[in-house]
Recover the amino acids of this structure.
């Protein structure tokens, strides 16, 4: 998409905290791939954000490489986009510091993701966790991006980013556009877990999450174990959360005609959940296995991944440096 002859700017990121799953794919990566031709795109592996909850860096390199490999295996082209690692762009940390002066403790403490993590691990509440949204804002506005392809769980962070942007612009001058979560005009995606409630995530019950690295038999096993409910008793009765989740997953990977067939069976009370799961499992295997195999090859090619990161960092730093010059000038920090 162009405005005034220039491509509009897109930015997004994924934390390097473990294996990527179906939620990451349908909430984020699918849109990265769809946007790469039309927009100027910056996509990164958020290794600094990973440190807020995973301070042990032993697995960091492997995790960063895996996120890169899984993005590329899903169709992202490092020639078309800037695909980089957050810590390779030190301008991020400088902007993060300035934004922290504009962020209030009270609003940071009210962030849902912060409250959840603080509740789960009260002894691990570090300042980085509290200021997670300012670091994420720095990632985005460092490239003066307007569109941020993310899943539903990131919506509040984007709202906070707009607040920080408006505060900065108001105090120092109009430097940044407001960034918005993006999903081609549709509601932001929320891919459900297999255990009947909540969303798929990296840290929840491993059996309720489908990873892009899962082997075919494991995919089948997980789907077989997925939660179902009683059969509907009356034609047209509403679907329970567990059943509706299975249908949502079916919609992501199966043909529309297949979804319609099971939907009709549900409505006329002839559905057998075992058949639904078997179909879902086979379509899921068809979807995941080519990505898994490509990702393995890319992951094993360390030289290639290093090249990708170096090229990505160069593109990202180019953009970051021109923004930071504007920022320092606007803030009056350009006295030498
Ligand atoms: P992270 O690493 O938790 O997730 C990466 C992306 O996957 C999406 N996602 C989902 N979408 C739909 N359904 C799900 N079940 C699901 N689970 C995860 C997330 O919405 C996200 O788009 N804070 C970010 C990382 C980040 C970032 C940024 C994002 C750092 N800086 C700048 C955008 C812009 C995060 O933790 O994502």
């Amino acid at each position: 998409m162009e405005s005034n002859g220039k491509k509009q700017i897109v930015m997004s990121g994924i934390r390097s905290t473990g294996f990527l799953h179906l939620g990451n794919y349908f909430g984020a990566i699918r849109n990265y791939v769809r946007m790469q031709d039309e927009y100027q795109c910056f996509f990164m592996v958020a290794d600094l954000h990973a440190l807020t909850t995973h301070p042990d860096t032993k697995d960091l390199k492997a995790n960063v490489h895996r996120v890169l490999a899984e993005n590329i295996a899903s169709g992202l082209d490092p020639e078309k986009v800037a695909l980089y690692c957050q810590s390779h762009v030190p301008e991020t940390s400088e902007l993060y510091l300035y934004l922290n002066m504009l962020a209030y403790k009270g609003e940071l403490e009210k962030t849902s993701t912060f409250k959840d993590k603080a509740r789960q691990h009260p002894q691990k509440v570090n300042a980085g966790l509290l200021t997670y949204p300012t670091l994420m804002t720095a990632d985005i506005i460092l490239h003066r991006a307007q569109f941020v392809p993310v899943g539903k769980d990131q919506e509040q962070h984007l709202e906070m980013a707009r607040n920080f942007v408006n505060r900065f612009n108001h105090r120092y001058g109009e430097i940044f556009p407001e960034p918005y979560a993006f999903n081609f005009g549709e509601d932001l995606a929320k891919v459900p877990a297999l255990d009947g409630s909540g969303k798929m995530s990296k840290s929840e019950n491993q059996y309720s999450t489908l990873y892009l690295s899962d082997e075919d038999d494991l995919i089948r096993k997980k789907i077989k174990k997925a939660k179902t409910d009683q059969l509907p008793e009356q034609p047209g009765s509403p679907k329970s959360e567990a059943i509706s989740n299975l249908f949502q997953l079916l919609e992501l990977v199966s043909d529309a005609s297949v979804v319609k067939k099971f939907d009709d069976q549900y409505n006329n009370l002839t559905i057998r959940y075992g058949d639904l799961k078997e179909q879902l499992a086979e379509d899921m295997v068809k979807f995941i296995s080519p990505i898994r195999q490509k990702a393995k090859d890319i992951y094993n090619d360390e030289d290639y991944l290093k090249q990708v990161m170096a090229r990505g960092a160069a593109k990202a730093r180019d953009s970051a440096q021109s923004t930071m010059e504007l920022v320092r000038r606007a803030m009056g920090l350009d006295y030498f």
